[in-house]
DNA sequence: AAATATTTTAATCATTTGATTAAAAATAGA
DNA sequence: TCTATTTTTAATCAAATGATTAAAATATTT
């Protein structure tokens, strides 16, 4: 039997096109033909390499969920850093990831809504939100407030502008440059704001 | 020529089913047959009353955008209330709308991303974000910070939990009751937090 | 070079899906 | 009641879409 020697270049062309089309239009609105065309090759090749639209999507989705949680997971579980330090690390790191991947949050969130079983990382995500060092430190600082409230604020202030970016674009309110400028300003502002919330 | 006497009950059955299916699954993943079945009637009736999937969707979408901006528009443009008062009015009012319509933000945002031209309200939305009384009052209070930063925080802290609700549900982290509890707590917390941001 | 294995393509299939049509059923008007 | 109008349905259409197939092109092995 012959060993499979897959041309990495072609495979990568397909998955790169899949990343683009899936994240832009979502699973349901994506046509496998769109991906093939974007990759500059035949539709049948897509199934030759990845068997089905569903399988290809799962790959992209897992990757994207990894990106969304990957940056923060090691930070929030570090017992060497203080609460204050964690916030100062998370905010700029996360905003940079999102600047590189503006459509990421809306893509992941809407696909999880459409198909919760696609959310394979749910266990890890749950642990970050309930059993991380960050949660313990938040509870120490403010024992009377559900730590989830602060996590929602911290992540929300980072993510929300990217979720609403299509609105800004559609209303002609912000071009790409001024949006990025806005986010750059937030890098220091969010840290200040979250500290204010925690100290009062 | 005969006057059209449409049975309001049937028409309403269809649009109510459309509201449900469209907001749950999004435009692309929705099948007109799903809507017909949900409404308990024939697929052809749907086209008899509403001509096309697209037209029916536009109706629902306009309605939903109205819900999303309707509550805040009159508040932010009121020149009789102070900045402080506006915040105290917006937060609980908006959270109540969202509690009644948890899927609303994610639906509207992802559909605008998929199809920006569906966003018919874009002019009005743009004005709220740039020319409202609220914006002027924010600028008076903090001339050195783009008022959009505060609006993003105010709306984001209200909306973000609802956008991430599918994640909480999928990870089994929060049931509906504890989610609602979390939001109830936020009604006073967000007001406090936003005031902190504006006073520092 | 010949044979074998792998990659790529054009053509095609079977299903799904939005929409239409023609007829039946229900309702209103005379 | 009889007729015209409106509402509802079953059947069907045409296009789109995910996937397969068989053959051609390319690469690898001997």
Feature tags:
Arc Repressor Mutant, subunit A; DNA-binding; 200 residues; mainly alpha; Tetracycline Repressor, domain 2; homodimer; 2 domains
Could you characterize the architecture of this molecule?
Chains A, B: Keywords: DNA-binding. Chains A, B: This is TetR/AcrR family transcriptional regulator. Chains A, B: Pfam families: TetR_N. Chains A, B: Residues 8-68 form the HTH tetR-type domain. Two copies of one chain form a homodimer. With 200 residues, chain A is an all-alpha fold. Chain A has two domains: 7-51, Homeodomain-like (Arc Repressor Mutant, subunit A), CATH 1.10.10.60; 61-199, Tetracycline Repressor, domain 2, CATH 1.10.357. Chain A is 78% helix and 0% strand. Chain A is built from twelve helices and no strands. In chain A, helix 1 (8-29) packs antiparallel against helix 2 (32-39), helix 1 (8-29) crosses helix 4 (53-70) and helix 6 packs parallel to helix 10 (147-163). Mean pLDDT of chain A is 93; it is low at 1-7. At the A-B interface, helix 1, helix 7, helix 8, helix 10 and helix 11 of A face helix 1, helix 7, helix 8, helix 10 and helix 11 of B. Chain B binds a DNA duplex (30 and 30 nucleotides) through residues 2-7, 10, 31-33, 41-48, 51-54.
Short description:
Chains A, B: It holds the Pfam family TetR_N. Chain A is an all-alpha fold and 200 residues long.
Oligomeric state of the chains present here:
homodimer
For the termini of chain A, the CA-CA separation is 69 Å
Count, helices of chain A: 12
The largest sheet of chain A, given as strand count, sense and whether it forms a barrel, is: none
Please identify the structural class of chain A as seen in this structure: mainly alpha
**Whole-number tally of structural domains of chain A:** 2
Main interface: chain pair and counts: A-B, 51 and 51 residues
Radius of gyration of chain A: 20 Å
**Shape field of chain A:** globular
Please write the string of helix (H) and strand (E) elements of chain A.
HHHHHHHHHHHH
Number of beta-strand segments of chain A = 0
Given as residue ranges, the uncertain stretches of chain A (5+ residues, pLDDT < 50) are: 1-7
Would you state the CATH class of the largest domain in chain A?
Answer: Mainly Alpha
